[in-house]
Design a protein that fits this description.
The chain is mostly beta strands and 637 residues long. The protein contains 6 helices and 40 strands. The protein is globular and about 70 Å long. The N terminus is likely disordered.
């Protein structure tokens, strides 16, 4: 597993190169006004100013990512105040929106849609994301748009509580060479990139050592991963073809909760092997008058072996079409279609079986969204998606949004939406144990989980040095998943017998206190209530609300010390969890960067400097993340 000594050698070899590097263009920070004017595409599937977007959306910029010193995509997402990022062990992240339902007793988080360059990475097996396999070369990322709240009208049935849209840079923005090395107490990371104005090739290696419990006992979660990515762009901005390819392989130790016992026989947990590759192509063509056509197709292949539980071989093909019509007076419309198919081949075990073992699935959808200016300051947006899946048939996903601008740098918006999460194979096709007689027999009668959401928000920039956003929300849930038990004879099955509600507030802001000092803060508060419907006996299901903190607070300070040094401090305060019980914690991180030249920099990173803490899971199995130090070197040419 991890080999920190190899990275010490790599750093020693790089130091002379860093010291003699010649000057190059340095990335400049964005001003508060620049950040408000950032163009985002996830809210309306067309470029619009962040200030004008009628949704609770937070943008993690390329500069944020660079300054964070994070090693993986999952770690970078901690920068978004409207996400709940909880880590149970290396590679095991529970990531959901700040609106609750961040996992249940029978399933990990499955209410958030994640896109990487338009490619959906949720797993049809459980409708969530395997975060130990989803990663990118972080310096390739242009921005990450994080929408909290439903995005189903534009993105489909699994955009239930939010959308994470990872958008990488074009090849022309990353021309040249980059090498980065990071080493520290928790492991190491190496990245390299080479490219021209038309293509780039990136490689990334991660090697993490095992974690420990609060007692000091070992957690078997050491892991390593190798990743290769390619991107090519051809043609001008109005007629561009982009091809992106990714491949990865990795091996992880499988942490407790423990060995698996089947019919009195104890089976030892083996390592998790994960490999995969994807290929996507996108054509963007500008039409006369301001319209455009966007075509995208991708293939995704993955294999995951989790012994002794299951092994999966999954192939996905996805076709997307979008037509943005030229604006006609005060009217702007976009419509499109999506066809997605998968072939899932399960190697079942004595522990669990997915039946049928081989399954073909199809998803098809048609959507349209229209924006209309009622006046110079008032805009109304209406949208509808019709989506069909093999488990529940046709789902109807409408939304209505309204935005009012009392002044050029201020916007008030509101939205009403209906969204669903379609059942996954885990909901319908799971059988335990893996051979008859079965104790758990899936959920043939489960229906789509439903949320009806009302939002009211404000986003503004009162001065050139201060901006903030506030959103109030109320969500009503229905048909949430339950696990029912019948006696005589004993049998367990999944059903849809829980309902509930959530209300809360999300807010964040940024203040340029001086030309050298920037402060930012984020706060979320959530009250979540879940209750069973008559006839259900799943007493554990309503306790899922205990997996979400009632409040979170984030404070960040970035101070420029002269022309070649920066100091960034981050304070995160996260409320306690009730089920399983996890105490509230405060984490203090720091990063000091010294730019040796305009081509090279060295960073000293400190995590959890105030002491160790746990974030997610039962006390007997969850990792306790200690104080950790690391050094990172970056060289660009």
């Amino acid at each position: 597993m991890p080999h920190p000594q190899r990275n010490a050698v790599a750093i020693a070899l790089l130091l002379p190169l860093l010291a003699n590097a010649a000057p190059a263009v340095e990335l400049a920070d964005l001003s508060i006004e620049d950040l408000s004017n950032l163009r985002v595409t996830s809210v309306s599937k067309r470029a619009e100013r962040l200030l004008d977007a009628a949704a609770s959306v937070y943008v993690i910029t390329a500069d944020d990512i660079h300054r964070s010193g994070a090693a993986t995509l999952a770690e970078v997402l901690r920068l978004a105040p409207n996400l709940q990022v909880a880590q149970g062990s290396n590679g095991n992240f529970a990531i959901g929106s700040s609106r609750g339902l961040n996992g249940t007793a029978s399933a990990p988080p499955n209410k958030l849609l994640v896109l990487i360059d338009g490619r959906s990475v949720y797993s049809p097996l459980f409708a969530g994301v395997f975060w130990d396999t989803q990663d990118v070369m972080l310096s390739d990322v242009a921005r990450i748009e994080v929408i909290s709240g439903p995005g189903a009208t534009l993105w489909g049935v699994n955009a239930f509580n939010g959308v994470i849209n990872v958008i990488t840079r074009s090849a022309s923005e990353t021309a040249g060479t980059e090498v980065s090395v990071r080493a520290g107490g928790r492991g190491s990371e190496f990245g390299a990139r080479v490219g021209t104005a038309n293509w780039r090739l990136s490689a990334k290696l991660i090697d993490l050592k095992h974690s420990d419990l609060a007692s000091g006992a070992r957690v078997n979660d050491a892991r390593e991963q190798q990743r290769l990515a390619f991107r090519a762009d051809w043609g001008p901005e109005g007629d561009r073809l982009t091809v992106i390819a990714n491949a990865y392989t990795g091996l992880s130790e499988q942490p407790l909760p423990g060995s698996v016992s089947v019919n009195g026989t104890t089976l030892k947990l083996g390592d998790i092997s994960a490999t995969g590759a994807s290929l996507s192509a996108r054509w963007q063509h500008a039409l006369a008058g301001g319209g455009s056509v966007d075509l995208q197709a991708y293939l995704d292949h993955s294999q995951r072996i989790v012994r002794p539980t299951f092994a999966e071989l999954l192939d996905i093909v996805d076709l997307q079409f979008q037509h943005t019509l030229a604006a006609t007076g005060a009217n702007r419309m976009v419509w499109g279609a999506n066809l997605r198919a998968s072939h899932d081949q399960e190697d079942n075990s004595s522990v669990i079986a997915f039946l049928p073992a081989n399954l073909h699935q199809k998803w098809s959808s048609l959507f349209a969204q229209d924006e209309f200016d009622l006046s110079e300051r008032l805009r109304v947006t209406g949208g509808l998606r019709l989506e069909h899946n093999d488990y529940t048939g046709l789902e109807v996903l409408p939304t209505v949004r309204m935005a009012w601008k009392p002044a050029p740098d201020h916007a008030v918006w509101g939205a009403l939406s209906r969204t669903v999460r379609a059942p996954s194979r885990q909901d319908v096709d799971a059988f335990v144990p893996g051979a008859a007689p079965f104790l758990l027999r899936g959920g043939a009668d489960v229906v789509a989980e439903v949320a009806r959401v009302a939002e009211l928000g404000y986003r503004g920039q009162p001065t050139s040095t201060f901006s903030y956003s506030v959103t109030a929300l109320h969500q009503r849930y229905d048909h949430l998943r339950t696990q029912e038990v019948f006696l005589k004879p004993t049998r367990v099955f999944y059903d849809s017998n829980m309902e509930g509600s959530a209300r809360g507030v999300e807010m964040w802001g940024m203040w340029q206190a001086s030309p050298q000092w920037r402060l930012s803060a984020g706060l979320t508060a959530l009250h979540e209530t879940l209750q069973l419907k008559p006839g259900s006996n799943d007493a554990a299901a309503p306790l899922a609300s205990g997996r979400d903190p009632a409040h979170t607070l984030t404070l960040r300070s970035l101070h420029t010390l002269g022309t070649d040094k920066d100091l960034e401090l981050t304070l995160r305060k996260v409320g306690s969890l009730a089920n399983p019980a996890v105490p509230a914690y405060t984490a203090f991180d720091a990063r000091f960067v010294w730019r040796l030249s305009r081509k090279a920099e060295v960073s000293l990173l400190g995590q959890n400097l105030n002491g160790s803490h746990a974030e997610y899971g039962a006390i007997a199995t969850r990792a306790d993340f200690p104080r950790a130090l690391a050094i990172r070197l970056v060289w660009q040419n």
